Each structure stands twice: as C-alpha cells, then as structure tokens.
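Researcher: Please translate sequence to structure tokens.
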Amino acid sequence: MERASLLNIDLSIPRRIVVADFVESPEPHRVTDIASQLKIEAQRLDAACCVLTNNQMIVFLTGMRSEPQLYAFADKLLKYAQARGVDLCFGMDSPAVDNTKLRQAFEQARKALCSCHRKGTVHIKGYDEINMEIFADLIPLAAKREYIKKIFHGYSTMELADAIHTLECFFEHDDSITKTAAALYIHKNTLQQHLKKIALRTGYDPRSLRSSAVFYVVLYFYQDIHLTGFCKA
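Model: Translation complete:
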C-alpha cells in the first residue's frame, strides 16, 4: 500500500492491466512523446486509469473490468496511436477478484502482448486467448534451439528461414494448398513440392495432422527466439 501511494495508485479501486508496446521501435524521444499522449488519452477514457512505463512498454492500470470494456479501451488507444503514425500491440490480463495479484496480472498481460508480436497480424489479445505462451518462458532458449536443430537437421540458416515462412503461411491458412499458394504467389504444385521436400528432409509431413503438432512447436520456438529481446524485457 505504501508503494502504491508513492506511485499515486489507489488500491481501493479494482483494476485490470493492459500493456502496450510498439510494433516497430521509434526514436527514444518519440517513445516518450507517444507515451505521454497515450496517458492523456487513457485517462480521458478512464479517469481512474494509472499509466506507467517500462522501457518501451506502456502499462495501463484501468478501472474498467469487463472484457468488452477492456477490448474497446485498447482498440481506442490503438486507433489513437495509428492516427499519429504509430502502430502498437496490446496484451490484457485475465479477470481477478481483487488487486492482490497485480504482479501476476502484469505477467499475464505481458505474455498476451508477446503473443501479438509473434502473430504479427493481431494487435490486441487477452491472456485467456493464449496457450503455449503460458509455460514457454519456463523452457530455456538453448532447449528451444536444440529442438529446432533436431527437427531441421542439416538445414542452413537461409533454408530454415524459407521453410519456416512456408509453414507459417500454410498453418495460417488452415492447411489449404490453394490459399497458401496464393498467399505465397506460387503455383499449387510448387507448394506441394516444397512441403514434400520438408517431409523428406525432416521425416515429418506438414500435411499430416500428427506431424503438424511438431511443426507448430518449432514455429513457436523459432518466433520466440527471434523475439527474445522483447519477451524477456
């Protein structure tokens, strides 16, 4: 309670936590400027909202409680930032009974935010929507690299990046050959050859339901490694 008082946070108000981060890092002075503007806008939307900054992460402690309210709050802040030429990602915590677990709520929101960065096409996500992110931080990066190396044994860095890109697109389009080929701007037969080559070299066929789980984990670990700087912030 003493620390909350120093931070000018009224703990008598039940709160939810929303965290935001820049999709692409702007100049340091721009970060400060946008954070200040977002604080003003957030408090206009919710007079009880407290706003803190953690490196490039902006933390909103809002008095809004329901999921629709929280999504609307994040969406308005997103559009406010986009109108000023800045793109953001938002993560939200899971509903809690009171304020005794604010640190846990922050970690939930941060993990949801990491998921937005991994996805790349989603700007707002709640903790209740994520899955592997819940326990991924417990797995050492060395183990993640070793798993990828095991599955894609013998692949060069460039070959691995190409294979990952193909698989990401394939799973993004629900294993549809037609939609994936269109998204990659290649012929369906060419895509089939790419997938067959991956199956031949790894021993796991991306078109198989059983093997898709293996590649899903690889994709997650690959994205996690490339987002290490942010997700460990």
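Researcher: Any highlights?
Model: Residues 28-45 form the longest helix (18 residues).
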